[in-house]
Amino acid sequence: MAYAPLIFDLHGVLLGRREPAGHQPAGEVLRQLRAAGHPLRFLTNSSSVGRQQVAKQLASAGVEVDAGEVYTAAMTVAHYLRRCGRPRKLFVVGSDALRAELDAMCGGLLSWAAPEEADTVVASRDPELDEETLRRLARAGQPQLIATCRDLGFPDGDRIHPGPGQTVARIEQALDAQALVLGKPNPYALASVMDLPAPLSDCVVIGDSPLQDVALARNAGAKAVLVTPGGDAPGGPEPDWRIDAIDQLLPLLCR
């Protein structure tokens, strides 16, 4: 596994997680992985902050990364819209950070539309989405519905922060349509967005969710490491390896 690109999930792996007693902190483990020649990338389904802010969050947790190594679900959606190349009347349900990313990467193709006038709807978490907006979206005809992800929550220590899943489901019901979900476990980010120095078959995805991270690896043809506090997690495809501390990656990958 020498020099294999390593793709880390964030929440539950490097953020919002305490390493078991007696194990090395994540920042030191990543330093050793870099020294061994592994290119590192960081992929999150979150679209509420940009890559610079993610890098700052990681630094606060003792993990030093370059913002250019970070990829968010907002970037994945923006890349897809830019790659499609056609002008769109866009309505966004989500954060200001999501709107800013879309505008920065493909603003020349986008015009911001009212809900009932949109031909494309991008959906992420929005706890303030109201019934009036849903009714207006239902009058839009048949807009393309694109979602960042279906995550119901993001772990943060002992707490779970709500994810976009509930918002996406409400919009799907209002439009009577199924969303194109571009975040994990869709491999689009790995195959088309991420700058990887090796084929996907040489890459290793490291995450805490069988249904998101392990499934992402399987869909991309990559290897998967499942990180859980107890070394086990229900549901989803089987990983190639299970670990319960980040430093257990070192004997696994640096040999």
Automatic annotation (TrEMBL):
Taxonomy, superkingdom: Bacteria
Matching Pfam families: Hydrolase_6, Hydrolase_like
Q: Record's Gene Ontology CC terms?
A: cytoplasm
InterPro entries listed in its UniProt record: HAD-like_sf (IPR036412), HAD-SF_hydro_IIA (IPR006357), HAD_sf (IPR023214)
Q: Name one GO molecular function term.
A: phosphatase activity
Q: Which PANTHER family does the annotation name?
A: 4-NITROPHENYLPHOSPHATASE-RELATED, HALOACID DEHALOGENASE-LIKE HYDROLASE DOMAIN-CONTAINING PROTEIN 2
Protein's UniProt name: Haloacid dehalogenase
